[in-house]
What we know:
Elements: E1 8-16, H1 19-29, E2 32-36, E3 40-44, E4 53-57, E5 61-68, H2 72-79, E6 88-89, E7 97-102, E8 108-113, H3 126-129, E9 142-152, H4 155-166, E10 169-176, E11 182-188, E12 201-205, E13 210-218, H5 221-234, E14 238-245, E15 252-257, E16 263-268, E17 280-284, H6 298-301
Parallel strand pairs: 1-4, 5-8, 9-12, 10-17, 13-16
Antiparallel strand pairs: 1-5, 2-3, 3-4, 6-7, 7-8, 9-13, 10-11, 11-12, 14-15, 15-16
Fe (ii) ion is lined by residues 147, 149, 213, 215, 265.
Domain VOC: 8-114, 144-269
GO molecular function: dioxygenase activity; lyase activity
InterPro entries: Glyas_Bleomycin-R_OHBP_Dase, Glyas_Fos-R_dOase_dom, VOC_core
Amino acid sequence: MPVIKARNIAWCRLRAPDLDKMEQFLVDFGLVTALKTETALYMRGNGARPFIHITEKGDPGFIGFAYEAGTAEDLEKVAQLPGASAIEDMDVPGGGRRVVLREPNGYQIEVVHGMATADEIDCDPKMRRSFDPYARKGPARVRRVAHGVFATPIVEETLAWFHETLGFIKTDELRLKDSNALIGAFYRIDAGDEPVDHHVIFVNRNARAGMHHVSFEVEDVNDVFFGHDHLKTVGDYEHIRGISRHALGSQIFDYWVSPWDQMHEHWSSNERFNASSASHIVPIGPGLAHDSGEKPSERFTKQVTQ
Ligand SMILES: [Fe+2]
């Protein structure tokens, strides 16, 4: 039995030397500023979380991901794990408490509980219903943070830790067609009968450990397109991959990097899973293309933020 069954991803925590520049990228990406201090930037989506993205001021990098515990007792359970912090009060928008863990690659995993919700941000219906084409201009409307992806040389160990600690369960596993070697796996939240995303985490084999990307669900598929146009026209941002469609999870996706090479994804999908949905082994190798569109570039597959 896992220690707890986490309910959701809560935020990503990155580092960047210029919070104003990061804020501009994230606003253009579709997030909304929740709080900016001298040392940290908190950004939110349209959903009820007070924030879904933190940037600490410092050398560019990846600090870790946070996940939401279902109950206060769950927080006490993870605080008993070897190397866990004590339960700490959080001085962040929404308050709440956390326990800090380290996953096998050494990155910080915050398990959080008891945060206040924020008022949801109403979306202007004109953004998608108006016949005025100019009404669709602007950033994608981001609803929530949806998943985080690890690159790592220790795939099995990393997956086992997330399963045993936070209760994530396997959705799809990627194996080389010829050797059957495990390349990576998508794990989802175990919320019983409740429908959840295809994955809350993807762990992918790479020589270096770090964040591959952090991913945000947008309000609907139109946002993927007008978000793309916006990022393309307003700033000197690097586009990495998309717009295209992942076969696994049916996500219409688009990938961009921050000014410090931290990859951020927009996606929209209507495919959901519950705890009894079947898990599959997906063979990969030369000539096996599952996603729509062009094959992923080396720039995309080798991407790591350490
Ligand atoms: Fe993704």
